[in-house]
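[step 3/7] inverse_fold.run input=structure_tokens len=332
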């Protein structure tokens, strides 16, 4: 299913793409210069580091692996994360059921206001985009509470490991975030008759701290590495973790919040469930003073997360990173 917007009235139409059309509607077609070029994507599936969290007892090793992954890829996968299989299966099931609900039921959740905590939408910010994307998402909080609690534990562990890998106190990032925020999205990518003309989700970096992604067994996520797109093939029971913009700032550019995107395919639907771990809106974010020295001058001015988030949404999903709007003035 995909939504098309009637822009004047913001009225929403739902088209059943899978059964009714065999062409991508024109407002979903990207210009030739901005298409996925699927034949140029590398699909070596061991390209993104896989980290075994079970070996936490050999903690130095894990810290070192995470540091390396954050530096080189901004992305890694985790296994033996401690989230029981049934919690994961249940979360996937909840999502599938939601997207199988009759259209009229689902549309009761529709909103294009990004500040709403529970909403159904499509594209990124329908108010700032001309070209739509091929997905539907449902961002929610408080639903699937059991899953959320477990993911929070994994996030807290990862933040400790990331802090340590930067040579900071174990609880440095935890404290820097103030009261933590956690948002979850359910992404639904329908089969698409012409996947080479559009995106499920165009290239972007995540504005938050870290993102922990659960996906079904259909590939679609791609990560930019050394100017090449790498396809990340799903491994059952693992999560994909990526560093968001706030870690790039806290780390004073040691770690990179990298561009990623989701592509669609003509055969199967795909569901992915990202959890966006965030600072509190009032938290003041700045590079850690321990990571500033003569060789590493301070790269960013300080800002509140709410200021950052507002700028992020208002500019739409531009390819150039939102981080550049917060850089310190270049030193003379
Ligand atoms: C996101 C995202 C990737 C995916 O929602 O920010 O990057 O595979 N999703 O759905
Ligand atoms: Ni993302």
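[step 3/7] decode complete -> sequence:
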């Amino acid at each position: 299913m995909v939504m098309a917007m009637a822009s004047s009235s913001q009225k929403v139409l739902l088209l059943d793409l899978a059964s009714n059309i065999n062409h991508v509607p024109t407002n979903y077609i990207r210009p030739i210069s901005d298409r996925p070029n699927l034949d140029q994507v590398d699909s070596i599936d061991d390209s993104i580091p896989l980290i075994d969290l079970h070996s936490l007892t050999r903690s130095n090793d894990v810290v070192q692996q995470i540091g390396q992954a954050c530096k080189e890829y901004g992305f890694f996968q985790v296994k033996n994360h401690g989230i029981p299989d049934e919690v994961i299966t249940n979360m996937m099931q909840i999502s599938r059921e939601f997207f199988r609900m009759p259209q009229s039921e689902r549309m009761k959740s529709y909103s294009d206001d990004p500040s709403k905590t529970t909403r159904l939408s499509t594209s990124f910010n329908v108010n700032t985009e001309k070209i739509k994307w091929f997905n539907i998402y449902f961002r929610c909080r408080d639903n699937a509470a059991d899953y959320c609690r477990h993911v929070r534990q994994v996030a807290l562990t990862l933040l400790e490991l990331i802090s340590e890998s930067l040579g900071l106190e174990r609880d440095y990032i935890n404290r820097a975030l103030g009261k933590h925020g956690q948002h979850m999205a359910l992404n639904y990518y329908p089969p698409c008759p012409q996947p080479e003309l559009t995106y499920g989700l165009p290239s972007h970096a995540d504005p938050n701290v870290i993102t922990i992604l659960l996906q079904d067994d259909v590939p679609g996520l791609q990560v930019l590495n050394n100017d090449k797109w790498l396809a990340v093939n799903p491994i059952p029971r693992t999560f994909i973790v990526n560093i968001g913009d706030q870690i790039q700032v806290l780390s004073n550019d040691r770690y990179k919040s990298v561009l990623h995107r989701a592509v669609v395919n003509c055969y199967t639907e795909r569901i992915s469930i990202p959890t966006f771990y965030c600072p509190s809106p009032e938290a003041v974010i700045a590079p850690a003073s321990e990571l500033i020295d003569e060789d590493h001058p301070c790269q960013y001015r300080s800002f509140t997360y709410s200021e950052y988030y507002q700028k992020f949404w208002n500019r739409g999903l531009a390819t150039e990173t939102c981080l550049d709007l917060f850089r310190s003035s270049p030193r003379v």
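[step 4/7] annotate
The chain is about 25% helix and 25% strand.
Residues 185, 187, 201, 206, 213, 215, 220-221, 260, 262, 272, 274 surround N-oxalylglycine (ligand 1) (CB under 6 Å).
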